[in-house]
Amino acid sequence: MLNSKAIEILTPLFEIVKNAKGKTIGELKLELSIERANMKKGASGLIIENLLGIKNNNNSDADIPEIGCEVKILPIQKNKNGEIKAKEPTQIQMINYFEVAGEKWETAKVRKKINLTFWVVYLAKENSTSLHQDEYRIIDYFVDHPNENKIIVFKRDWELIQDFILKGLSDKLSCSMGEYLEPKTKGANNQDKTNAPDGKGGVLRARRRAFYYKKKYTNDHIIPNI
């Protein structure tokens, strides 16, 4: 349950998204007087930074630090049968292999990133056709504060990923792992690597990865609430 401070801080954001519901990115750009040349971060950057007025980040601090709340943008697709699904997994935070190896779940940085999330949802694909960015349409918002049962699943997924890292198997991680949390590859290609523990006190090189919400999580726990 949200406390009074969280409600007070988030309420203006609720109103912003309510007023934007049904509008396209192109329409919002006109309203916000944003030229394409300034759209370096695409739709997500426009929604978070220009519409909501929040500076998005990829560090351990929450996007709204006063209440420890992250802001996430969720592109969805509407299939020909009318079914609504997440278009892709959602990035939470880059994985620092050595940091994760030395963490405990209770104080893990990624846990702070999933404790409270303000999701803004937009339609990005319809009837198997990806829409042009200017045609993306704001659908709704949802505030997610995972209960104890969900946290147990996140913890189990995180511990599985950490175990691979501790054993020197960082390069064997797979996005098929986990139920809610997955270690998805990042970077231009399979040569984009970083340091990771080798399980013997040394260092190996492994593909860069980030923690992501699996589509199963957003499909099961976010989309049904919009």
Short key terms for the protein model shown above:
226 residues; alpha+beta; five-stranded mixed beta sheet; three-stranded antiparallel beta sheet; 7 helices; 32% helix
Describe this protein's structure.
The chain has 226 residues and is of the alpha+beta class. The chain is 32% helix and 25% strand. The chain has 7 helices and 10 strands. It has helices spanning 4-20, 25-31, 42-51, 97-102, 109-114, 148-166, 215-221, and strands at residues 70-78, 84-86, 90-94, 117-126, 129-130, 137-144, 181-185, 193-197, 203-207, 209-213. The strands form 3 sheets. Strands 1, 2, 4, 5 and 6 form a 5-stranded mixed beta sheet that branches. Strand 4 (117-126) and strand 5 form a beta hairpin. The protein is globular, with a radius of gyration of 18 Å.
